[in-house]
Amino acid sequence: MSKTSGHPVIAQIPKEERPRERLLYRGSDALSLAELLAICLGNGHKGTSALALAHKLLSRFGSLSALFEASIETLTEMKGVGPAKAIHLKAVCALAKRLNAVAGKGKFPVTCPRDVYTFIAPEIREEKQEVVALMLRDTRGCIFHHEILGRGTLNGVIVHPREVFHRALHRHAYSVILAHNHPSGDPTPSEADLELTKLLVSSGRLLGIPLDDHLIIGRVSYVSLWEEGEIQGSRYILK
To answer: Ranges for the MPN domain (predicted)?
Structure first.
């Protein structure tokens, strides 16, 4: 046993019982969560194996979901997790989320702004520049498609209504929701945010594809312009 970690180092584990070999010969279902995480980490650091580091990460964050929600900055606070490992973990997290989006035909029901925040915030809130995400809803109010419309500078990005509604028309969306992050972490809407929202509301009314909401995503919170009274007639709660 390692004197520093309390977990056996990889070299002390019989080859056939090491995580990679177990996955190869027994399949992924035979591995524990820590073992799978150890494979994703690749290696540990001096005095600590990848498996011991995986156990420490799970102990520190309490669950896999909490670990995956952690920012790169938070992950790198752990000894043995440098930027490369943190980026690798975030990439694995993103792949898992996209796989979940594909499951069930990628439909995600939303009945309130908090649902939208839960859906889209992990994808854009850590961005260092403004990123605009478009979400398309079907007649049942589920998000069935989402994509990044544009990336901008540290404090702005230009999105034209024709980009929003071209995609909505192409995919036969019933309504749309827009969201973008504020890299500063403060979700307070700017004048430009309010003007864009008004333009999208009027454009959507003409085309018969309403804008249900526009969320500004901060570091740990959000502002819904529907909740702020800037958008009328949202279909959050379906009858």
So the answer is: 109-231
Residue range 22-76, pLDDT digits in tens: 888 888 777 788 888 888 888 888 878 888 898 899 888 887 778 888 889 999 9
Domains of the chain, residue spans: 10-101, 107-224
CA–CA gap between residue 161 and residue 127 (Å, rounded) = 23
pTM: 0.58
Number of residues assigned to the chain: 239
Which token pair is 235?
């279909």
User: Is CATH 3.50.50.60 correct for 107-224?
Assistant: no
Laid out side by side, the sheet with 222-224 consists of 108-109, 142-151, 131-137, 175-181, 211-217, 222-224
Task: Specify the CATH superfamily of domain 10-101.
Answer: 5' to 3' exonuclease, C-terminal subdomain (1.10.150.20)
